[in-house]
Every structure is written in C-alpha cells, then in structure tokens.
Amino acid sequence: MSAPASPAALYAQAVAEFRQGRLQQALLVLGQLLQRVPSHADGWNLVGVIHGSRRQYAQAAQCHRRAIAAGAPNGTWVNLGLAEQRRQAWTEAEAAFREALRRDPALAIGWQKLAGLYEETGRPAEALECHRQALHLEPGNLRSLSDALLLRRYLADWGPDNGPQPAELVAAWRAAARSDASPLLLLALPEADALVQKAAAATFAHSQWGALLARPAMAAPATPVSGRRLRIGYLSSDFRAHAISFLVLEAIAAHDRDACEVVLYACDAGTGDAWRDRARAVADRFVELEADDNQAAQQIAADRLDLLVDLNGYTAQARTGVVARRPAPVIASWLGYIGTLGDRRLADYVIGDAIATPEALAGCFSESLALLPHCFQANPRVPVLPPADRVASGLPRDGVVFCSFNQAYKLHPALWDDWCAVLARVPGSVLWLAPPRDRIACANLCREAAARGVDPQRIVFAGQLSRDAHLSRLALADIALDTWPYNSGTTASDALRMGVPLLTFAGDTFAGRMAASLLTALGLDECILAGRQELVEYAVRLGNDGQERARLRQRLCGRLPGARLFDPKAMAVDLERLYRALHANALAGEHATIRLSD
Questions:
Q1: Is the pLDDT of residue 93 over 80?
Q2: Does the model's pTM come out above 0.90?
C-alpha cells in the first residue's frame, strides 16, 4: 500500500489541475489537503481563486480570509479585494487593497487593482493616480500601461506629461513574451498597425490559454448534416441591452428553423432585461452557461453543434476559456471583436466581407476569412420613430450639426485636429458627441477644442436616453463623422438608418474599414473619401452647401426602404449559406477562405 501524498505533493497536484483548467478536480485535491492541514494558507487561497473564477465571490472572499488568518502572503489581500469588488462590496474591497499596500507600498499589483476599483466606482482621478504608482514601480507592466492608457483615452486626457503614451504601449507589446492585458485598445491606436495587433493577440492567447490550446478538442469532428437541421450556436455575454443584441437578434430570429436549429449561450452573470427576454424568444434554446469554463464547454459540446459563433472575442466579460476548449468542430468569430484573436484554435474563421476584410489583409489574421457577399454587419429593420426636437435635445435651433456617438476611447489628438478644422471652416456648426463617462472628459474635450481655436460651446454633449429615444434624436444631425483607426460600428449603422450620412475613409485594418463596408452596402461610395484631408474638405463643403447636403441625405433616405443592409431576413439567408460552407470545409478537412457570391 503506497504512502499518502504529502501536503506539498497535494498542493502541487492541485496547482497543476488548476493550470490545466480542471477546476473541479483541483477542488477535490484541495479538499484532501485541507482536511489533513486545515491551516494550509496557500491551499485556502487557491480554493478562493477557483471560487472567484466560478463567480462564487462570497465563498471566494471567505476562503481568502481563512488564508490570511493562516499566514498567507501579502498578495492574498489583493485576491480578497478582487473577490469583494466582484460582489460589489466596495468598502470591503478598498479596505483589502489598502491593507495590502499598507503592508507593502511597493506592491505594484495592489496599486493596479485599486485603480480598477476606483474606475468602477466612478473615481477616475484617483484611479489614474494609482495607475501612475503602479507604473512607477513596474514601468514596463503591460496590464498597467494598457489600463492607464485606456482610462486616459476615456477621459480625453491626451497630454504628453500625464501618463503613458500610445507609443510606449506599442513598444511594450512588441517586447512582450507574456501578457495578461487584452489587445483590444490597440485597435484604437494609430500607432498600432494590423501586424502589431496580430502579434499582440497571439501573445495574449498563448499567455492566457496556452495549456488549453495544446489539448485535444473537446468536440467530436464535424459530421454530415443530411436528414437533420444544421445546429448553430451563438456565444455571448451581451444578450442584454448591448450593441451586439441590437444588431443580431432580428437576423437570428429570421433563421430558417426548418433547416437550422439555433442555440444561444449566455456566458455572463446578468440578471436579465427586456433585451435578454428578446434573446430568449428568438432561440430554439437559450442556455445560461455554468460559471466554470470547463463545465460550460462541456454543456456546449454535449449539444453536438455543427458550428459555434463567438460574439465576444476579446471584449468585456468574454469567456475565451470556453472556446479554447474547442466545444464545437467549427468556431467563427463575428461582430464582437473587430480583429484577430491570434490563434486558430480560438476561431477557425473571422466573418467579414470583401470591403471590411479584403483578401489582401488575410495575413493579418490567425483565422481564415469567411466573406459574406454584402456587409459583414447584421442589422435590424429601419424603425419608424417619432421626430425629436432640436432645442429639447440640447442643440441650437440653427446651424449644421456634425455628430459622432462613439465612445471617447476612440478619440485622439489627430482626429480632434480634423474635427476642429471642420468646425472652424463651417460657421455656426456644432459637434454633437455621446455622453462621456465622466465630466473630466467633457472638460478635457472642451479645452482641446479651445486650444485649436474652436469655441468650447460648440461642443455639445448628449444626455443618456433609451435606445429608441436616442435613435429618434439622432435624425436631428446633419452629418456623422467617422472615427479612425477604429471606425464607428453600431454607431455608424445607427446614423445611417436614421438618414444621417456618414463620412469615412478606408484604413488598413478590419476596425478601420467597417464604415466603408456599410456605406458600400448602401451605394454611398461618395462618402468614402481617400484620406483624412479629403474627408475634412468634403465635410466642409457639405457643411457650407445646404443644397448638396440635402441631396446627399435624400439619396441615403431614398435607399433605406428595401436596403439589404437593414434586411435581417436577407442576412440570415447569407449567414446560413456561409455556415454551410464552413461546415463543408470542416468535413473536407480544409481551412480555405470562403467567398460567397450573390
């Protein structure tokens, strides 16, 4: 009879199981360990980490407290703070982070996580100061650099002396061998080209899920569809009041249920709203996934899908650990993340079109291209909404209204140069913007306008409204100005569906070509300019020529009835054709580019 494993061996086994994503097995081993050594600090801490990964935050906090009582290292206070933060116990979370920093003021991760808490609780100035402390201690830390720069972008804090600059982040990504920072922000930085974005995505993927990506796929290989429906799954944390639901739910509802079975997998911990109710209604089945990634992947694999569509990518609340386990024989990335995920195991295909993702850009993706015959973006039908009033919406009664309802992190100094140049040359015009997260951003944008010779009163910030009310007021704008290098997405199609022409130019990345794809689908090629200066000149001409502006708007509005871009049934038909082509590739053992024609 062999001797029982030592506590050290049990803990090492639990860590190995945890790193392989086998959380339930890790808990079983930890149970044995803690039964033998009830005061094993590292054991309690790891149990807490596992509970936290399963969104069992109260249990996680309790375990971290037991670890601390047993003499766990100082970093356990940070783990406790994270568990308390995630269950929205703000006071307890701040106290835990502060205790970690009292014990060790040089603990960079403590400053980093305290910054995240302050951001979440609406204290951006304090958050930025914590980011500065973290970067002072670890100047090259990618997570701190990325988080600090993203916060600065949300605050329109572009000064060269206030914190990290985009070039610093890009340089850090180029040098990084590992990273726990999402590459999402790179999509919005002019300094980061498509190949930098691809390399960063690969580094992130291998750092976070390398062990899983090396394991055999959880799903069985593709099987023929004859005699049954094609089984399609959609995975998202955004089946709620979110842009993804606004865009896709009508197209999903329009799938041919005689030919397709549709399952929606919600991977968030949301309590639900009217949009979640709509998502439930459009699916054959709506599944709330388990919080444990392995169990969630097993749920999906048990459904024996033909294809899984990931609507998250590297966006907030993504469950990349689920797709890394390959719970379906074919996985496609669509709409959520407008870039590459960096490893073919995370997605076989990225769904795009010949304008947004031309074959010339294929080398910028780890995925193969799956090209729809028209625009890659799904859209609901054009709504009929009551008209809004200019003055009631905070706009001047007269004067041209330029607009951009993009989030502030897509704005940057060069873009602001262009927009202020337009305002300066169109007398009486205003720039109408989405409500920023914080008043600091409003003050900063107004100050930046003044520095460029534009009266800050000509920068108008919209209030927060319901979606229908927002769409109704959006029709008051005259011209929408696109952001670059990260284009408008939902904000672009919103403007177009409400009859507001959008001006853009095509960039060199997927994120920089979205708006050109939308405008091409509507036949408005004149709104796709050759570059920045050409866009400024056309915006000025439209701003100063009411007749030309009216003709352009009339052309757009005349094309909205019956426009394929806003025909969810037509999109559903194209998607089904595309999915069958992807499935056929899988049956043949191929990953070739798919190009659908009309």
A1: yes
A2: yes
